[in-house]
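Exercise 7b. Backbone tokens:
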């Protein structure tokens, strides 16, 4: 019979399917492994026909499945968000081939967001809307400040990544922008910058506005040199700042401080000066080859960067040197960069010479830069006028093809990705040829010279769209100025190049201009045309530096911009000849996903269904081409083909088609619980929806009529995808916020076509309107304050009307925790007359109460209300603002925990230890109003696990170990519910926890290194102990029901650890040793063996390691020097391996290492995998001992119970110290709980003070707050006790207060200092200063991860730009900024003995007053009980 059976092929490797008389073997090859051109997406399989009648059988024929490729891009509404705001984003897909926009379809994209430490903090699915998908994320109010990363992964595509920043900020009254005229200034240079100043409310600056500046440049000897800035004057809002760079060796750091003043309003900014240190890199890229060709004119592109990746402008001379000995160099030509460190030059190299460049600028660079090697012969090509190419025209190319054989097939080809668009034969050695540029394809194309299909020369070019295909966008703002809370109407009109209406897909964003003004140009995202046509093709971050003016409505063509694009194209040497072996190129790339996006390949879907004739005796149906026995299926044109949700089906010639379908996944991110603050502006913010296709702000329900301004919403309109009508118009309405500011309107438009052959056409347009009243008042508040601070609050009173006004300002209300005793004196007098457009300044003296109704952890949000009206009562304004107030003092927590062990008729009494609090209270060292306390009971381990999750989430999460430890309790929750048969009773909770598990799993696998295994930050080489910890966690997940773990990952991880076997231990990674404790070889070996014993590894594979451990540990036992941690790991491992006899021998020894109270006899001899100290060390030792003893509770019962009691006594709010200690402690609790009966949730516990019962509760009710009882106990001098009728009920108490003094250092092996360095001897508003952080490891030992929490005084602002620069330069590994800017958290992976670190962060004094910070502290991450505390920084700002 003919091969007419219907087949179903499923992706897999080596799958065998018996289909009637046909035996089919199908195996998947990545699309990147294909050598032939592929304009469309393909998946390839080899199909072997084992038996066929009437056909050629017994051979293998490749099968291709083709579908039109697309690539997705992410767009957000703005680059900078405050905590509490909604970050909105849309995902638009465009054809890889011709950049046509694609319909959203039904396949949702998954998305994740990572915080500055690299921890995944949110995830979800996008929703479809027209021509895009969309979603949103509410930034938590407690979110750390810094750089966040949004990653969107569409089905079948590689991820799209978009970075944005989060931090608290004030909306400035003056916008101050600084742009340097050049990149990379060296010693002796004059650095020049353009400074632009404008009023945020859009009105004109006054004629009396002033501007001044100062600068600081870092020298190589560690000194910061203050540098004067030439006197500046403002003309039409613009000034020029010039400073002379010291003619000395530089560090590469510098800062420029600019102060602008207008009508008593001061604003200041500090920006990095692009100073070049002693090292840069210069990459030279021959136009079409990796090498130079002797005797031929070679065009060479180049790009220069410093060590942090910042572009550097260079000037220099090209020299040639003969390869004969003792030859002198001779000058060839000069060169200089013309845009962002990029430039080009040409010369003819000669055989027998070498070439190098010596730089004259920057003058600090002495080393020569060699050019690529020279070959005697080779093919090359030169594109004539590469910056002037338009689709629909011809491109002139000069080719050089020496030694061409007449039988060679030599072609000049034009490619879009791997697809050949046009070609011309090359028949002579040197010629000028023309390649046709298709009319419907623009963007980055590849020109290649091919010899018998082998590309020997190539370059990329940018082809501009045809001039007759341009789309134009006009934005009618309705009015230039709106009143606060007023309804605004905007009309968008799209037209073609002739002015006729053109239907288009558009997205509109209307957002506060302040977020853009506060974002450096380099951090601003590129717009839609640049993103679609350029971003995936180049390694450089485009930022706001590269643009395509023809796509920006109202902008004229810019020849210089076209030249800059060509420099960008020519300097992309990293991707040259990538298509020779795309699989190898991508897999060897530093960023494989970005490499694959550049290549235009896709990830295969998880499953593909096909039903078709595999081979055809006659003609193939339409859409299926037979080419030398290869069946190519065009998914866009094949007859009978159906596509449903990404599942492709095709009917065979005989039989009915099987119907396949895919469920559309539509979900948004998890709802975010933002707490219980009641300020109305926060309530308004929370009422704004997160994931909507079109958001049109409606403002407060009661509007502004007669009330105060309090709506500070930044984005007031946003749409994922809308369409203009047939007349090319779309009108939208929304309400503006209450901010006196300017609003940026951004429109992205993509022309919609019925004909796919039409060239893609984009356009963007911007507009700006203002929100302001004729008369208004604006206070300048700090982002935070500490109890006891004094704020001298500047108030600007502004007349934006047409006539002179005499305003009167009053304090309408002042919130809890604040006082303004002289408000009437400050504000009661009538202000001086204000001319139209003028502003004046008043000062309001506000004191933050020493004793307020503070939450111990959160503090409070205080509010200020102001009102202004003119003397005639014609105009008025009222507004309120809030800021964060933090309790003063050093936080202290005294925790205790244990188990109530009552028996019938004999309640258990436990005294709450108030010793430390009582002593501090008696000495006056307790800050008033800060005493708080919590009592918690845990009827089941589930409660403790949930507490632990919260405790771990409060810790940093920048690395694999931290993220793993925060994830592990969720594994234990599912394990407990499933093993105890409680999964049905807690089904909704279990489902949510499983969802958390899936999110955490995705985050954890991202830390796998390119060499397999795991490392702190996913960098090769892997860390053996961290890899073992990962294997332990993934294996625990794999044992759960309903959880899918990649078996390949488990196998790779096990195999890697087995490959590290060396003698009776494991080979070590010295580099990673500093990152995960400093554990000895014995501890590390025992830990890895322990992890592998729980992960399906047979003991025979670790015989040498087990033998070495048993001999070494037993020898230590006999010498009474055994490490109880290692003994416990070994004992549990032996039980896991089924070696019970050996396990009992070591288990008995382990039991003897603890006394009757459950305390280890030789704790000083114990060393853990994290080399922890204090409570964390005690917990880790006790936990692994319990885990070993529960294997035989009858044998070790009494001692096991005692050790468990000691372990429970160290529980603090569900956690047990450090991350490792908490995870091990919780594992021990779960294992122990399965051996004993659970507590009765209805049993009663009472609280006694001075012998009198003051409260009682049951476990199911929950305990009352302890604060009032603690106060009563302190005032009476009596004690507090808990009396319980419960048996086996775990409890914990936490007594909290803040002490006025700073505790002595508990980390003597380190020095740590924090200081404020002032530019002058005193500090006034808008002055610059420096936050200096220094530490040294003077202890003689290497350490693990270090953390410095640096308190920042209120009234002082630290910008994240310099923190980002510090990370890029390696001065710090990563950072976080507190949500209110009150603390900067700095992290270092570790330190070696003698290491020191110094960080100098520029800051600005923004608000006058007297401030003190929270106390700074410094500690090792795995030893957080030993810390260095410093007195709070204090500052007076005049």
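Sequence design result:
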């Amino acid at each position: 019979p003919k091969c007419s059976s219907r087949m179903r092929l499923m992706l897999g490797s080596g799958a065998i399917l018996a289909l009637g008389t046909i035996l089919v073997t199908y195996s998947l090859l990545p699309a990147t492994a294909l050598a032939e051109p592929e304009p469309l997406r393909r998946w390839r399989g080899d199909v072997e026909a084992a038996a066929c009648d009437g056909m050629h059988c017994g051979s293998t024929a490749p099968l291709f499945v083709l579908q039109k490729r697309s690539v997705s891009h992410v767009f957000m509404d703005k680059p900078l968000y405050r905590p509490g705001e909604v970050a909105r984003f849309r995902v638009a897909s465009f054809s890889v081939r011709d950049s046509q926009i694609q319909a959203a379809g039904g396949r949702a994209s998954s998305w994740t967001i990572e915080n500055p430490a690299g921890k995944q903090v949110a995830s979800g699915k996008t929703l479809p809307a027209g021509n895009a998908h969309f979603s949103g994320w509410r930034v938590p109010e407690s979110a750390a400040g810094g750089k966040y990363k949004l990653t969107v992964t569409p089905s079948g595509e590689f991820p799209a990544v978009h970075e944005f920043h989060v931090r608290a900020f004030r909306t400035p009254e003056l916008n101050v922008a600084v742009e340097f005229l050049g990149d990379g200034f060296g010693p002796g240079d004059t650095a020049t910058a353009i400074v632009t100043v404008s009023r945020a409310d859009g009105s004109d600056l006054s004629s009396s506005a002033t501007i001044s500046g100062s600068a600081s440049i870092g020298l190589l000897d560690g000194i910061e040199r203050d540098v004067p800035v030439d006197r500046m004057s403002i003309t039409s809002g613009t000034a020029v700042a010039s400073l002379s760079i010291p003619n000395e060796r530089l560090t590469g750091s510098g800062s420029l401080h600019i102060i602008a003043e207008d009508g008593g309003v001061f604003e200041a900014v500090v920006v990095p000066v692009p100073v070049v240190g002693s090292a840069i890199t210069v990459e030279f890229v021959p136009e079409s080859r990796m090498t130079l060709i002797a005797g031929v004119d070679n065009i060479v592109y180049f790009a220069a960067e410093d060590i942090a990746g910042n572009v550097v402008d260079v000037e220099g001379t090209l020299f040639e040197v003969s390869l004969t000995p003792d030859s002198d160099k001779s000058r060839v030509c000069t060169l200089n960069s013309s845009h962002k460190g990029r430039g080009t030059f040409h010369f003819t190299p000669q055989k027998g010479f070498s070439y190098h460049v010596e730089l004259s600028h920057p003058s600090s660079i002495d080393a020569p830069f060699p050019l690529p090697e020279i070959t005697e012969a080779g093919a090359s090509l030169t594109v004539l006028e590469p910056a002037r190419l338009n689709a629909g025209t011809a491109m002139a190319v000069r080719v050089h093809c020496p030694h061409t054989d007449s039988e060679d097939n030599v072609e000049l080809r034009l490619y879009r990705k791997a697809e050949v668009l046009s070609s011309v034969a090359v028949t002579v050695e040197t010629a000028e040829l023309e390649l046709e540029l298709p009319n419907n394809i623009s963007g980055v194309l590849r020109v290649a010279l091919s010899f018998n299909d082998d590309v020997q020369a190539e370059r990329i070019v940018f082809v501009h769209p045809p001039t007759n295909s341009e789309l134009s966008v006009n934005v009618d703002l309705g009015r230039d100025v709106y009143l606060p809370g007023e309804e605004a109407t905007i009309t968008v009109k799209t037209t073609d190049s002739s002015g006729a209406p053109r239907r288009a897909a558009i997205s509109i964003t209307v957002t506060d201009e302040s977020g853009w003004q506060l974002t450096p140009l380099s951090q601003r995202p590129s717009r839609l045309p640049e993103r679609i046509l350029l971003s995936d093709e180049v390694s450089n971050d485009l930022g706001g530096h590269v643009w395509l003016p023809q796509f920006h409505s109202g902008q004229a063509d810019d020849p210089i911009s076209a030249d800059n694009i060509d420099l960008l194209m020519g300097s992309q040497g990293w991707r040259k000849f990538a298509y020779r072996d795309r699989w190898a190129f991508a897999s060897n790339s530093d960023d494989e996903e970005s490499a694959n996006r550049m290549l235009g390949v896709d990830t295969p879907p998880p499953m593909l269904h096909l039903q078709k004739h595999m081979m055809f005796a006659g003609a193939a149906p339409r859409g299926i081409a037979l080419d030398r026995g290869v069946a190519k299926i065009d998914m866009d044109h094949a007859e009978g083909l159906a596509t449903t949700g990404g599942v492709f089906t095709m009917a065979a010639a005989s039989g009915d088609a099987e119907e396949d379908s895919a469920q559309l996944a539509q979900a948004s991110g998890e709802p975010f619980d933002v707490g219980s603050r009641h300020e109305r502006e926060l309530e308004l913010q929370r009422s704004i929806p997160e994931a909507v296709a079109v958001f049109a702000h409606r403002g407060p329900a009661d509007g502004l009529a007669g009330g105060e301004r309090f709506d500070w919403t930044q984005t007031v309109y946003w749409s994922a995808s809308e369409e203009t009508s047939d007349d090319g118009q779309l009108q939208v309405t929304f309400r503006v916020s209450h901010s006196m500011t300017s609003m940026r309107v951004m429109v992205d438009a993509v022309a919609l076509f019925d004909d796919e052959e039409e060239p893609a056409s984009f356009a963007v347009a911007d507009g700006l309107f203002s929100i302001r009243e004729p008369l208004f008042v604006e206070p300048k508040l700090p982002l935070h304050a500490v109890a006891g601070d004094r704020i001298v609050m500047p108030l600007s009173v502004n007349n934006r009307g047409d006539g002179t006004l005499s305003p009167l300002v009053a304090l309408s209300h002042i919130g809890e925790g604040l006082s303004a005793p002289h408000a009437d004196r400050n504000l009661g007098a009538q202000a001086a007359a204000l001319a139209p457009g003028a502003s004046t300044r008043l000062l309001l003296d506000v004191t933050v109460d020493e004793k307020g109704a503070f939450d111990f952890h959160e503090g409070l949000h205080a509010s200020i209300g102001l009102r202004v009206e003119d003397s005639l009562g014609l105009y008025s304004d009222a507004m309120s603002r809030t800021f964060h107030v933090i309790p003063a003092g050093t936080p202290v927590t005294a925790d205790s925990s244990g188990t109530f062990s009552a028996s019938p008729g004999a309640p258990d009494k436990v005294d709450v230890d108030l010793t430390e609090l009582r002593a501090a209270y008696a000495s006056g060292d307790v800050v008033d109003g800060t005493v708080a306390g919590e009592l918690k009971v845990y009827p089941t381990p589930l409660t403790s696990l949930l507490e632990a999750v919260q405790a771990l989430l409060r810790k940093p999460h920048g690395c694999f170990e931290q993220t793993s430890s925060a994830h592990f309790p969720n594994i234990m929750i599912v394990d407990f519910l499933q093993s105890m048969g409680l999964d049905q009773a807690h089904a909704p909770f279990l489902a949510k926890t499983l969802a958390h598990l899936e999110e955490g799993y995705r985050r954890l696998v991202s830390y796998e290194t390119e060499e397999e295994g795991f490392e702190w930050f996913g960098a090769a080489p892997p860390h053996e102990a961290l890899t073992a910890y990962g294997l332990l966690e993934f294996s625990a997940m794999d044992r759960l029901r309903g959880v899918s773990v990649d078996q390949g990952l488990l196998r790779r991880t096990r195999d890697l650890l087995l490959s590290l076997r060396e003698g009776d231990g494991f080979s070590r990674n010295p580099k990673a040793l500093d990152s995960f404790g400093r554990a000895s070889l014995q501890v590390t070996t025992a830990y890895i063996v322990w992890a592998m014993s729980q992960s399906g590894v047979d003991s025979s594979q670790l015989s040498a390691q087990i033998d070495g451990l048993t001999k070494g540990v037993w020898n230590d036992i006999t010498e009474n020097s055994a490490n109880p941690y290692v003994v416990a790991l070994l004992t549990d491992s032996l039980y896991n391996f089924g070696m019970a006899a050996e396990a009992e021998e070591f288990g008995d020894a382990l039991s003897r290492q603890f006394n009757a109270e459950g305390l280890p006899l030789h704790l000083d001899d114990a060393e853990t995998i994290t080399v922890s100290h204090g409570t964390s060390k005690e917990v880790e030792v006790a936990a692994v001992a319990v885990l070993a003893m529960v294997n035989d509770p009858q044998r070790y019962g009494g001692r096991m119970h005692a050790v468990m009691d000691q372990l429970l006594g160290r529980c603090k709010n569900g956690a047990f110290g450090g991350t490792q200690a908490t995870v091990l402690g919780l594992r021990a609790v779960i294992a122990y709980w399965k051996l004993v009966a659970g507590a009765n949730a209805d049993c009663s516990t009472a609280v006694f003070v001075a012998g009198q019962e003051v409260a009682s509760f049951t476990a199911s009710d929950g305990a009352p707050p302890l604060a009032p009882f603690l106060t009563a106990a302190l005032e009476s001098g009596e004690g507090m006790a808990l009396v319980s009728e419960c048996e086996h009920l775990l409890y914990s108490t936490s007594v909290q207060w803040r002490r006025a003094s700073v505790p002595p250092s508990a980390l003597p092996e380190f020095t740590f200092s924090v200081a404020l360095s002032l530019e002058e001897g005193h500090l006034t508003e808008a002055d610059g200063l420096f936050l200096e952080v220094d530490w040294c490891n003077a202890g003689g030992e290497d350490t693990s991860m270090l953390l410095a929490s640096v308190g920042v005084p209120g009234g002082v602002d630290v910008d994240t730009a310099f923190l980002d620069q510090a990370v890029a330069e390696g001065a710090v590994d990563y950072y976080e900024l507190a949500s209110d800017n009150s603390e900067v958290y700095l992290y270092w992976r570790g330190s070696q003995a003698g290491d020191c670190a110094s960080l100098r962060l520029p800051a600005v004094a923004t608000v006058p007053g007297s401030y003190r910070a929270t106390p700074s502290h410094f500690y090792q991450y795995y030893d957080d009980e030993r810390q260095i505390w410093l007195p709070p920084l204090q500052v007076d700002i005049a």
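Instructor comment: The first strand starts at residue 15 and ends at 19. The chain has a mean pLDDT of 81.
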